[in-house]
Structure to design on (245 residues):
């Protein structure tokens, strides 16, 4: 659904659609819950007792306006934990986010003989827009939340965290990030892996004008620059190729 012509042109769509695949979401659950994934559905044995993973409740998402797909990433993670969501998006993101959630609504999946539809997930979801400067509306959203997930720059993060909230409310802050990449001597000694690394780095750097969380701003190379001159030339060529694209 995500790669339909109706959604063409939304920045970061290819990565989002790959990230939403079942195999990747399964890995997310395994990373966070290990062999206790069944605790999302029922109490499971844990040592001498029983363990149950309970949803937090309503997750409010304040999503940065420059990357529309962030709304889906944040929403999907909350939904994996069986939480309800209220997603606040910027004015420029309203239309692309609406189309992305429309694709979710149209999705169908059959599991153990029962068909599940995306509209079942969206019945527990609200997507809203209001002016960021409205303290009244921001406070109303904040007071409805059991969790506040905040994406954006330092000013946006401070503004949301300063709002009144419920006593038990927890904050998940995804603020300014500084990304780096590391290339070790072993990889750079292998011509094939070295070339793959150059093109992978070039793609990550080019994504979102190097403003994405995964776009490295600093590259550390094991060894001396003189011994890796050929690879640096390959990286330069890969960046020029991305520029042409």
């Amino acid at each position: 659904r995500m790669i339909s012509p109706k959604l063409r042109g939304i920045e970061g769509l290819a990565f989002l659609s790959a990230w939403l695949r079942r195999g990747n979401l399964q890995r997310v659950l395994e990373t966070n819950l290990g062999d206790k994934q069944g605790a999302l559905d029922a109490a499971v044995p844990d040592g001498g007792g029983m363990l149950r993973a309970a949803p937090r409740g309503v997750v409010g998402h304040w999503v940065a306006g420059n990357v529309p797909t962030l709304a889906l990433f944040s929403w999907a993670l909350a939904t994996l934990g069986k939480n309800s969501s209220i997603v606040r998006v910027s004015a420029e993101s309203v239309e692309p986010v609406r189309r992305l959630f429309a694709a979710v609504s149209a999705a169908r999946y059959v599991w153990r003989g029962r068909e599940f539809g995306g509209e079942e997930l969206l019945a527990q979801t609200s997507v809203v827009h209001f002016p960021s400067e409205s303290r009244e509306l921001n406070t109303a959203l904040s007071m409805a939340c059991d969790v506040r997930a905040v994406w954006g720059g330092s000013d946006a993060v401070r503004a949301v965290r300063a709002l009144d909230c419920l006593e038990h409310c927890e904050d998940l802050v995804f603020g300014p990030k500084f990304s780096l990449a590391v290339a070790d001597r072993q990889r750079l000694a292998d011509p094939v892996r070295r070339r793959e690394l150059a093109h992978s780095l070039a793609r990550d750097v080019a994504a979102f004008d190097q403003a994405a969380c995964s776009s490295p701003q600093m590259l550390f190379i094991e060894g001396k620059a003189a011994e890796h001159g050929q690879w640096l030339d390959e990286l330069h060529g890969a960046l020029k190729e991305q520029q042409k694209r």
